[in-house]
Amino acid sequence: MNGQAQTAAVLDYEYMASYSVSFDMAGAPVTPPAQQHVMDGQKASWPTDDLKWDGHWFGGWELNGNAYDFTQPVTNNITLKARWDSYTFTISPVKGPSTGGAHVTVTPPAFDATLTQVSAGWYHSLGLGRDGKVYAWGRNDAGQLGDGTTSNRTSPVAVHMPGGMKFTQVVAGPNDSFALAANGFLYAWGWNSKGQLGNGNTVDQSTPVIVPVPEGSTKYTKIIPGREHTFAVTDTGVLYAWGGNDQGQLGIGTVYNSPTPVKVELPSGVTGFTQISAGNAHTVAISSTGQAYSWGSNGYGQLGSTAVTVGGRSLLPVAVTAPSGVSGFKQVVASNDWSLGISSSGRIYTWGCNSANQLGNGNGANQSAPVAPTLPTGLSFDQVNVVGDSAVALANSGAAWAWGDNQYGQLGNGNQSNQSRPVSINPPSGVTYAKVTVGKQHSLAIDTTGKAWAWGDNQYGQLGNSAGGSAGNLSLTAVVMTQPKLVITKVQFDGTAGTALTANSNGTWGVDTPAHVEGPVTVTISWSLASAPQTDYKINSYTYFTAFTLPKAGTAPLQLLTGKTLLLVSALAAGCCGGYQNARRKQSRRKPEHSSKNGVARIG
Question: Which partner from 22, 95, 123, 265 sits 20 to 30 angstroms from 557, CA to CA?
Fold first, then answer.
């Protein structure tokens, strides 16, 4: 510069590792999706290819034999293998009389709808199947199950999504639901009193609607619902919010509701949030440096910040006061009127309302700054979930701990007593939980084998075990969630429906055949899975035959004999008559012999 030599500037540059994600079709005659290249710590995308193989059910993608969760970061080269389940319906017997009335047993295939994600709302539940489909069960008064009805369900039903669409994330709000598609489209349904669905109105939705993507972005990457407000992150890293805002919980500097996405105002020096959680009327988040921020209502100290007085509110994000020795947080969670965070070292801290002992520190006093609940020494946590006044945390060792409100046994420790300090959750023998989520009065978990479990209140069927559905129903111990039900709705024989279609206790179905002319016919089976209609299945192996058993004299009028039976009877009759006539002609040519016995002439 100015002819003078300048000191060379030294800039730090870090090379980011890139990993390949390949796809193996497992022998299917299908072109595999294109290989993906993913930066270290980023996520792979569910391929948008519509994969089909005749006679097979696509069961999603697996890694090392386990269903792959596309919300997990990629840290090395991986090959995902397609899961195909061949399916066949069979019937027995395969033939019957043309008069109909034969009882046929239909054996359907067994489907594996393993869930890779579960999410608990207040009284309903969501699950993401290994096949990329969304399932729901429990309360449905606002259409939060997304099946086009407002009927409660005690077992998983398929959410009415666009055909062929695959999903990578499901999240249940209190009475609303959200799902993120593989192509980045965001769908919402259920309760919409304050515009929390983000579709521009306040009308409840019983089937999913698309949330519009703000200008400048092409898709969403993360969804975070609160009680009546919602957040989402776009592919540009920008945080948007919509819904209720009476306490400033949207973080946009006003108290006006918004039924469509608006940009959240970030604190000075913060370029974005890496994690966000929305509660009753407040929100907490973490910046890229690990600093926690909060905004909205501070009625009980739930913002955890000295910048806002207890009983007040903040319309914009403020820094949470970090406990002594804590350099940052790796997870924060907002609930009713309290908050929880996990420090970078894996230690749990709580603050805010403590009316149900939800802070886990052994007393009922509210806390306006983070405090540590009473936990055994040496434990480190990576995952915690809170809804209402209950908390469930999963330690690195796989052990689960819970505390707070336990009126319905939602803490999973075998009783209904509130817990002022964390207690160990007792899973069934041999079971280790990999993911745990808690609703207002029930909890859900997925174990290390992919099996889904539930416990707590089951008044609306939210445990998904085909039981419950009325007040007082609950389970103090974990129960296995029911697989989505396969229902046969009609069985047709050459287009004519059979009668007395009945589900048997062993999983098979029974049906009575209609009458039909003799010969082979096609059997068409109409069926649904998780209440979603499926493609009809055809079997070309049922044959009608005509019974040739002749009736006893006087037991069947001749007019009831038809087809080949009538022809056979006619032929036999003709043969008999012909023989009789020939015998008479031969006998008539003989001279009669007379006998005087009894004065009767005898022939032959």
Answer: 95
